[in-house]
Amino acid sequence: MATGIPKGYRSLNLPSLRLDYQNKAPASEILQTPPAEIERLWEFGSEQTAPNRLYFSENLGALAALLSDSSVCGQVRLVYIDPPFATKSVFQSRTLNHAYDDVLHGEEFIEFLRKRLILLRELLIEDGSIYVHLDEKMVFHIKVIMDEIFGIENYRNCITRKKCNPKNYTRKKYGNISDYILFYTKSDSYVWNRPVEKWTEARAKEYQYIEPETGRRFMKVPVHAPGIRHGATGEPWRGKMPPTGKHWQFPPDKLDEFDARGEIFWSSNGNPRRKVYLDENAGIGVQDIWMDYKDAHNQNIKITGYPTEKNPELLKRIIEASSNAGDLVLDCFSGSGTTLAAASLLNRHWIGIDNSREAIKTTLVRFSKGTEAMGDFVNGNRAQTDQQEGLSFDFEPVRPKVSAHDPIKDFNLFAECSLSSLLDEPAKHPACHLAAAVATA
Hints:
It contains 12 helices and 22 strands. By secondary structure, the chain is α/β, with parallel strands linked by helices.
């Protein structure tokens, strides 16, 4: 079997590729985007002690405003965004409230997202990362755009996520059960806490040997790798040359150290293999196909009811892998606040932005009382019960907690001044009302 010799993107000298279309603005022009005028709706504490921020704003102007904030610009360690997918659809919550419009498509959608990606790049710290969640319609176009903005050498993965159970309408095509997450970094040096899947007996089956002296399980791996080298790793070791077309993975003196510790297994015909012990590995490294983070919309999982809500465990994996405690995480399509809640749980600071009244309302309810079972059989006819009790709300009221939840209080709430028409009656505005509820929960 032919063996390929892997090369990084930097060594391939790939030509620069561009995606051209009408009305594609120069990056320099996008960086001059006028900042949105922002006002504070609610403040945590008396001395503005909370670094966490939630913005009720169109995100382009809000991102432009953050460019002039020295505590944010160049300080964001991780960006995760789950933008509209160019579905040409209008989305509602489970309570049938309007959530957001996803009506842009084609060149309009590409330029819409490109503008925000350019600003997000400026907000990232040099060792920061960005994850962009898309489906099959636009992921290939945005991959080229992100190559332009972040550099093809900073592309890390296109992660495939299983989003739902198998579908039945497969008469003329394969079932569509996946979407994709593009993972890029700002530079070649970036925060990376390698995620692993813990060992199970099935996963550990390759560790099939037991060392008689210690009882430790191990597997045998080659001590050579593809490619010819002319330095120490291409020289003889213990009188043996590496196989044709290959080199030793380690210099001979390092191989001697392994052998002295009993970590080289010699076959009956004198071929060396290195012992890799099961107990020295926390687990198997996570691969780029994720099967365990399906969308949470079913009868048995607690959710907010916001459309396209993502599984919080998905966000926990990303946040833990690409940031550390105390780092700043940003989501400018924050929706129901899944990223923000996960970041808070993991002791990260966060900034969330969304221009949907329903999104801000849902996020604040989530901060106050967590998520809840949303299935029809769980809820019953709750609206009728509220009516019988003489209650009237234009948004979901804050209800008593049914399970342990620590309210998220340490954040400041802002709004774009151009949305002032929604703030004419502050007492009826869900953001103000629920922010107060969070403060006293």
